[in-house]
Amino acid sequence: MPVTNPNAPKSPQDNNPQRRHSIETPALANRRREASLPKPATAGGELTLAALQELLKDGKAPRTGELTLSAASAAPANPGTAAARTPARSAARPATAPAAAAAPANTGHAAHWSYGDDETGPAQWGRLEPRFNVCAIGKRQSPIDIQDSEALQTPMEPIQFNWGKAAGSVLHNGHTLQVDLDAGHSIEVRGKAFRLLQFHFHLPSEERVNGRGFPMVAHFVHRADDGQLAVVALLLDRGEVNPQIARVWSSIPLDRGDRVRLPAEGVDLAVLLPTDQRYYQFIGSLTTPPCTEGVVWNVLKVPATLSAQQIDTFAKIFPMNARPVQPGNGRIVKSAQ
Length: 337
Description:
This protein is α+β, with helices and mostly antiparallel strands. It has helices spanning 17-22, 26-36, 49-58, 82-85, 97-102, 125-128, 134-137, 243-249, 269-272, 308-317; strands at residues 42-43, 46-47, 145-146, 152-154, 160-162, 165-166, 168-172, 177-181, 186-189, 192-202, 208-209, 216-223, 229-238, 259-261, 267-268, 279-285, 293-300, 304-306, 334-336.
């Protein structure tokens, strides 16, 4: 290590302030340079686009990495424009793994679907989320147009309905009125028991029979112990008032997400059924996203009735909530004789 003499005379250069400035470190030079910059207008502590343009004009714009540009400042503050509603990119922070796992999956956007002709409608369901992909590529999708001329006319075991008076509640889920039922009701079909979970409505009917649609349909959703689903479709034609449906309509919620208990007498499910319970049967899917396949569909041949007023009541809430008919793709459809 060299030794210096503190009493040695200093060189004239040592007393020269310009000489001292010329040996400043890069960090000190940067701080001095930043201090010499004008104080531009900012938005929330971020450099606005207008201020950046002013600096560029004067040749004093900071180098890359020395500024954060507010995305909100890239357009006039007009709340009616999409740019004004876009949050600043600099405010975004990558979520940690636990936070990302706990956050809803793009609530109200990617997961949202509808029955419209827009980017959220049935033609686009398969593109909205990866888990909806089968809506677009599935080969056994529902509903279908059942053709008697193509169905297998064969004897079939009747569906064993273990239905009775049911208690439960009516949910407005944003897509339909769904009646969630208390336990105790089931069917047996193809030698397998399925527990009734809920039933809901579509207007018009999703299923077609020989090209004919119906004003409405009720879908009764069942699940077996192994997780397989079976749906009984009860077509609803215009006719007499349906007292059991009237009980459901009396409990219609006021808003999406609301739930109202059924009247004390509940709904007598057995009374809803027609006397003639012959049916069509095929393997299909859920008719709403995620369009899961492997569902055992049982479409009763004889419809029940609703009055014109009852149909109109539902239509005022859900003017149209039916998926279009899907290709049969050579599926076997059995017709009970």
